[in-house]
Amino acid sequence: MRAGSYKVTTNNYIFDLNVLKMQTYYNIYFGDPNHMDGACVELSYDTDQEETLKLDSVTFDKRCSKDKQLEKGKGTQEMVKAILKICVDAFPKVKRVVLNDVSSFECNGKDVWLFYYYLMLHGSTWYELQFGAKIVDKHTKIKIDQMKELLLCKPKRSVFSFYEGKSRDSAVTFETWHDYFKAKPCAFFLQHQKEFERKLGVKLVYSTWKIKVSTIRKYNIVVSISKTKKLSRQNGGYYPAKHCIHSD
Fold first, then answer.
1. What is the pLDDT confidence band of residue 186, given thresholds at 50, 70 and 90?
2. Residues 6+ positions from 61 with CB-CB distance below 8 Å
3. 119 near 151, Cβ under 8 Å?
């Protein structure tokens, strides 16, 4: 992969791709790293550690696509899949993509951890569900699997302190914890994040996950890539990347 700026056309969007290189180290961006909110996706790659590609950050913003506003959910997935596909094709020695999951979304001006939200609603974290990611730490995997089993059970008051036993506006009880959580607004998850963490028994903040390269290579999502003008600098350099992942 050569340093420079490119226009990437995917099935539904157009993105700016910027590649910076310093000796053996690459920073690969969708979006402009000079933007006040940072690039939309950032990956890093060191040819001295040629088997590992790092997904450093994902930030959802409508501005991330150039031709039209990026859609939450499906748009974010297409954006991430596209840059992963480009990178694993460009660096054929890569055997794994790793990431630290600090995914979140904004609710009432504060961040809700996406892994708890998705785990409670869907039984999988966002990266598991959308990209087939696997947790690296075996102990954490056991705890997550235990939580998944619990969430398939019928709710009981003794499990979570906040359980009401019925919905607010009816006498209908819930068959599983998933059903119960699906009836809750995001503010509920914001309020009870610490209890989710205590019940799980491990911290998922900065938990390490990996995505199979064989899966990424099968993505049929990038239509074309063309060279564009060079990325401009501000104040003599590039803004540092944000080391957190914000998605929906």
1. very high
2. 31, 37, 40, 70
3. yes
Rounded to two decimals, the pTM is 0.82
Length of the chain (residues): 248
Neighbours of 119 (CB within 10 A): 24
Query: Per-residue pLDDT tens for 89-146?
Result: 999 999 999 998 888 888 888 989 999 999 999 999 999 999 999 999 999 999 999 9
Give exposure, 185-220, as e/b (b: 16+ Cβ within 10 Å): eeeebbebeeebeebbebebeebebbbebeebeebe
By CB neighbour count within 10 A (0-12 exposed, 13-18 middle, 19+ buried), where does 1 fall? middle
Question: What tokens appear for 174 in the block?
Answer: 């819930």
- HSE-CB at 101 with a 13 A cutoff on CA atoms is 24
Identify the DSSP state of 229. P
Task: Count CB neighbours of 157 within 10 A.
Answer: 10
**Among 56, 76, 73, residue whose Cα is nearest residue 64:** 76
CB 55 within 8 Å of CB 29: no
Residue 182 · residue 151 · CB < 8 Å: no
User: Could you identify the residue written with the tokens 């310093």?
Assistant: 22
Integer Cα distance of 111 and 181 in angstroms: 18
CA distance 41 to 211: 16
Task: For CA atoms 87, 88, 92, 93, give the dihedral sign.
Answer: positive
